[in-house]
Amino acid sequence: MKRHFLSLLALVLAVACSPEKQPQPFSVIPMPNDVTLSEGSFNIAGALVTLDEKLDEASAKAVKGFVQTLKTVTGSSMNGKGGDGTVHFGLNPNLGVEEYYLQVRTDGVTVEASAFGGFFYAIQTLKQMLPAEVYGGEKVRADWLLPCVTILDAPRFDYRGIHMDPCRHFWSVEETKRYIDIAAVYKLNRLHWHLTEDQGWRMEIKKYPRLTEVGAWRNGTMVGRDWDSNDGIRYGGFYTQEELRDIVAYAAERNITIIPEVDLPGHMVAALAAYPELGCTGGPYEVWTRWGVAKDILCAGNEQIFTFLEDVLNEVMDIFPSEYIHIGGDECFNGDAEPDRPDPWDVCPKCRAKMRQLGIKPGPRAKHYLQNYVTARVQKIINDRGRKVIGWDEILEGDLAPGATIMSWRGTAGGIQAARKGFDVVMTPNSHMYIDYYQSREYDKEPLAIGGYIPVSRVYEYEPYEGMEPGTEDHILGVQANLWTEYIPTPEQLEYMLLPRLCALSEVQWCQAERKDFTRFDASLDHTFRMLDVMGYTYAKHMRGIIGMPGHEQPARSEEELEAFLKENPLR
Ligand code: ACM
Ligand code: ZN
Q1: Rounded distance, CA 396 to CA 375, Å?
Q2: Contact 462, 508 (CB under 8 A)
């Protein structure tokens, strides 16, 4: 009896002393640019959500989607009978297109934006302020509290990209949508979709059916780093135009524009396998089964390639409404597979005749000027439809015509030089933004990767203006990370390489430089990891001292152990 009395007393005291329910700590990634937290909270479960009738259709749809999510996860009808008041979404034409104002008070929430982007991002911020279960799609008992806060937020950069490579390994429509979903949570607004490669052509082109009949399939894949091996498994896949349009629309509903890439004139072996007459030698060619850089590229001296490119790009522009069309342009020369073979453009009679016709002086730079000619012809095709060209930094070599935008990947030098010459730039340097590189130095515990070492902190510390000539910064449109998939065969590994480096990327893209703080970011990852768990994403846990994919996780070595390991096994 006495024992019972004591435990009852303990229970009464515990209830009497329990602290007020608290919202979770503010851990939004990317950190909004102007945040003032105050006392108190707002219970959103059951609140009434109202929206300005002037909201455009896409914004209204996004708000209604948010209400539906809240109904599902809270189990309430969101009709004002629960909750602490009203959540109002109103139009404020004074805000920029991706800017939003958000105020949470104890008696209500006000959201303002001028356009879809702003409303969409306000919703992303609200969701991250709630318990992670808001991402789960199931009813959950939780305290659906928002902390009282005033936020005025807008991105630092207009272009906030992530790249996806379905060519080396193919990703289904559903896998692609999951990639888009998580990019949208962290407020990215561009998906650079690398759809053509030596190892596979991935989009249906009605006028050239062999591009997918032949070019989308390879006779096996090299195993590990054994360049002469082949697993003997036919591999491939492609997206129909209907699927491409579906993905474009899906991304647009998440404020993400898809920039398609047709990589030219190099990285074209899959297309050459389908249409060998487009190459300098006439083939035969085979869709590549190994990684690396091929020697065979489109023949610049053959007028047929421009008809081909115009036809292909016209279908591409019919499908993708993006202002930018990516034309690749990387690694056209010095292919590594046949080191003793000259570059085809140096020896092809048609290419040499074209160089003479264009008045290009013979010599080692001649082929770069011939590439400029190809770029300029393609630029006209794209500009004639009111679109813009973006290409890898190699297109800057020689004498690039004005109007193209440069994607700086071989470090930052190309971007800095391009901006000095007056070209717009997207920074994606392989010093910080190649997230196919290892994320720890304990590579023996990692799935095989292409090499290198870019941990979360390295992505985070990137400052896009570093090294820029003063006055040229405005040419930097933004930042992107690239995730090539030579060594990434499964969607789980894709996500493991992406997350949480994507989160670090998002702060580089969104936050003003003075708002970045790695200690605060690191603490915020606890909430992000809960969100990713709820959504079922695979993610890397290096930031918490764990290395390796699920099922292969191991603790990190001590500093001394790591030094000893690296001495014996240097990372190449
Ligand atoms: C590239 O990584 N070849 C652009
Ligand atoms: Zn040629």
Answers
A1: 10
A2: yes
CB 446 within 8 A of CB 438: yes
- 440-472 pLDDT, tens digit per residue, is 999 999 999 999 999 999 999 999 999 999 999
CA distance 572 to 566: 10
Give the mean pLDDT of the chain. 95
What's the chain's Rg over C-alpha atoms? 26
Which residue from 331, 397, 432, 435 has its CB within 8 A of the most atoms of ligand 1, so it is best to mutate? 331
Give the predicted TM-score (pTM) of the model. 0.96
Which ligand lies nearest the alpha carbon of 342?
2
User: 196, 156, 163: which is closest to 180 by C-alpha?
Assistant: 163
Q: Are residues 290 and 409 in the same domain?
A: yes
What letters, b where the CB count within 10 A reaches 16 and e where it falls short, cover 412-441?
Answer: bebbbbbbeeebbbbbbbbebbbbbbbbbb
Among the ranges given (12-26, 239-253, 476-490, 528-542), the one the predictor scored with the smallest mean pLDDT: 12-26
Least distant ligand from the CA of 429: 1
**Residue pLDDT, tens place only, 31-66:** 999 999 999 999 999 999 999 999 999 999 999 999
Residues 83, 172: one domain? no
**Across residues 271-294, what is the average pLDDT?**
98
Buried-state track 42-60, b at ≥16 Cβ within 10 A, e below 16: bbbbbbbbebeeebeebbb
If one counts the domains in the chain, the total is 2
**CATH code of the domain containing 444:** 3.20.20.80
**Closest residue by CA, ligand 1 atom 2:** 409
134 and 211 share one domain: no
Question: Rounded to an integer, what is the distance from CA 65 to the centroid of its chain?
Answer: 23
Q: Is 492 in the pocket of ligand 1 (CB under 6 A)?
A: no
